[in-house]
Amino acid sequence: MADDIIIIGAGQAAAQAVQSLRAEGFTGPIKLIGDEPYAPYQRPPLSKKYLAGEIGYDRVELKAQDFYADAGVETLWSTRVTEINRREKRILTGDGREFSYGKLLIATGSRVREINVPGFDLDGVHYLRNIADVEAIQAHFKPGAKMVVVGGGYIGLEVAAVAVKRGIDVTVLETADRVMARVVDPIVSHFYERVHRAEGVKIETGVTVSGFEGTDKVTAVTSGEGKSFPCDFVVVGIGILPNTELAMEAGLTVENGIVVDEFCRTSDPDICAAGDCTSHPNGVYGRSLRLESVQNAIEQGKTAAATLAGKEKPYNQVPWFWSDQYDLKLQIVGLSAGYTQAVVRGDPEAGRSFAVFYLKDGVLIAVDAVNRAPEFMMAKILTQKQAVLDPKRIADETIPVKELAG
Amino acid sequence: MAKVTYIEHDGKEHTIDVANGLTLMEAAVKNAVPGIDGDCGGACACATCMVYVPEEWLSKLPEIETMEETMLDFCERREDNSRLSCQIVASDAIDGIRLQMPESQH
Lengths: 406, 106
Fold this sequence. Notes:
The complex is a heterodimer of chains A (406) and B (106).
Chain A: E1 5-8, H1 12-23, E2 30-33, H2 57-60, H3 67-70, E3 73-76, E4 81-85, E5 90-93, E6 98-100, E7 103-106, E8 110-112, E9 125-127, H4 131-138, E10 146-150, H5 154-165, E11 169-174, H6 186-198, E12 202-205, E13 209-213, E14 220-223, E15 228-230, E16 233-236, E17 240-242, H7 245-249, E18 258-259, E19 271-273, E20 278-282, E21 287-289, H8 294-308, E22 320-325, E23 328-334, E24 341-346, E25 354-360, E26 363-370, H9 373-385, H10 391-395
Parallel strand pairs in A: 1-2, 1-7, 2-3, 7-19, 9-16, 10-11, 10-16, 11-12, 18-20
Antiparallel strand pairs in A: 4-5, 5-6, 8-17, 13-14, 14-15, 20-21, 22-23, 23-26, 24-25, 25-26
Helix pairs in contact in A: 1-8
Chain B: E1 2-7, E2 13-18, H1 24-30, E3 50-52, H2 55-58, H3 66-73, E4 82-84, E5 98-100
Parallel strand pairs in B: 1-5
Antiparallel strand pairs in B: 1-2, 3-4
């Protein structure tokens, strides 16, 4: 029908969009289509409390079970959209059904980057992206089992932290010369390496995985440097890729993500996109960003809903991220790429609490805060303002956080 | 289980039965109660789930911990009876609690 809104993808951005569409006053029909057998759920806890078994499905599910029905939303789970026909404004599903749309929201998210080395398909080689992945990994969680983690990024290190606490023998292999190299400064990387080693995790940097050994199940991970790491199972966490194929095949502009403007509009006026799958302009940093974060999914979900409901709610925020490992809460504000000076507040060499402030020609562009909520909250305000800070004041802990800007 | 009433700034009430163990922020977000954003999904990183707790209920809640205090410190509309609803866990002890919400969380 002419005013039908169809949402492709059922993750965080989609759930937010449903709620916001109704809050913005859209009363027409909404269809929500997802390829997993679940209603939208939160992914961040999957590599943290959910993997640890501390919380179950009821705590990751984003909305109450009757929320979608109450909101008058038709839900289609375990359903994959295979084609968008823009000329006829119809979509096609894997099971051969067709639905007409008035407007479309693409919220297809992202998928794991797969490792393409010999033995990649052996039993016991896992990724972590959805609930089914976590269940498969948990089945290996027996004290003394040997796990090799391929990739020392957020996912790999969060899994390592959970597993070592469950008595698993954990080795993390990282290609770069330090962990989390893509997202934080060496100061923060070395701090995390120190803590993980103190907790009993073996970390090997500068190691490029060349293959998995085993006849039917994996028994070792081999490296290009000629080393072999025996294991009972493997978790691979080497990044994610945006799900842009549907958009690309439909002829929408795609450049490292589905290209949208600050209102989440794609190159087709009847189609919006939101979340991990988009590349969007960011006014604070003056460049296009593709972000993999909850904040981005929620805020773009709100913005896309407003646009679809005929309103304008531009999205232009400083990004923020977090990672939980052991008792460490890492909270990141902004993007530090291109910084000219890193200033440390606190002591990363001892203890478990400090923050790194990144300045570009004096302007605060990002902060990595470890167990430093005040610095994190203040950084959100100061980065959005593009505040100029004095490095001496940042490093001086006798100056309260709220007075850093002078 | 706790029956929880969320009161919007304009006085509109939403009463929800919240299972023990769930936070009052989670219950509000799951049921799309307007006025509680919970933008960070409970990571204690956004301070967008602040509520005002009436005196008679305030004493039944656990003390404010450091993290919550820090976040509240950055809430523009903080009052003496402010709490973050992501840090209040439902239990029989708070059955019937009423929470007033601020005009905006931002």
